[in-house]
């Protein structure tokens, strides 16, 4: 091995084999550091390669000292390195347990917001105060264009949603936890939001019984007389979708994955009524749901409704003639749903939203937009209003009692018993006289 020392022995130059590349090493900031000069003797004379290597090593050493004096030299892992490690292992470890959209959201939050602010900081420099500075930065720069964002939407003078900041904090916490797991950080600091320990309890958008009646009357009228005859199948599907979702309490993603083989019409042993037993596959994996009796009729209509027949338009027919394609002359035959077909094969969100807007039901009294998820919220609220046990509702909806009590039972007036609240203590007839005090000596 060939070795040379420069700058008074502060920098060592060496190469392991004759004709190989020169490397340099030094100790700066209490840590031994190495780098390659990328100089060898293959294309240059031996003396020239050594001289160039000395120049590169000297510049490298002086650059390290300048960074140390400016506070830019890190002797620990940075947040950027921890984030790279987190992204490499998170998707592999949680494969099949976390949705692809959530996994991609972590990468987006890191690229757009977290890495530009924390990326060059050492892991020990990320404290509760620094995280609070980040929250202030996010709110105060909301009207400034973000060069790391790929969105082309116009800027709005609107505060970041509480849930948006919460998700960014969750991603930040997971990166710090990754650093702890690899021994780069001793512990995760407390990065919870100060001054707002308990958030305001708000109910989720739902349809009151009167609003729900208005909705299904509107969908029923649209199914009988659609805007266009070619929309008849979609209008009928939307009507049965509204009824089915409000009677079963399924999540929208669970309804998308639902197949006819997952639904069975049975006679309940306890009530003697016909209900649906549904095997649900969605957010919580595989679960089960038992519907109310009036869910049977909408499902029977779904099961007996033929799929829409594809009609070749005049424009497409001309295009097929132009390209020489064969135009089918036989009349299309009707096909009915098979066991492996989806119960709701189409996406009718536009029609559903247009009906909400036309009936002035899109926004609730608090200005929250109603979506297909509001049908599930309606099921839970109506069940509580009619006296169903909260634990039974939680099991049937594949959620927790805590979630129902926090987001649904908090604003249901029927959950408060007037008889239990308006209790009055019976008044005694007259003032009670004090009993005489008896001492042991008087006995």
From TrEMBL:
Keywords: DNA integration, DNA recombination, DNA-binding
Keyword DNA-binding (UniProt): yes
One MF annotation (Gene Ontology) recorded for this entry: DNA binding
Claim: DNA-binding is one of the keywords in the record: yes
Region annotated Disordered, chain positions: 141-162
Domain Core-binding (CB): residue ranges: 77-180
GO BP terms, alphabetized: DNA integration; DNA recombination
Superkingdom, taxonomy of origin: Bacteria
PROSITE patterns, per database record: CB
Protein family per UniProt: Belongs to the 'phage' integrase family.
The name this protein goes by in its record: Integrase
Organism of origin: Zavarzinia aquatilis
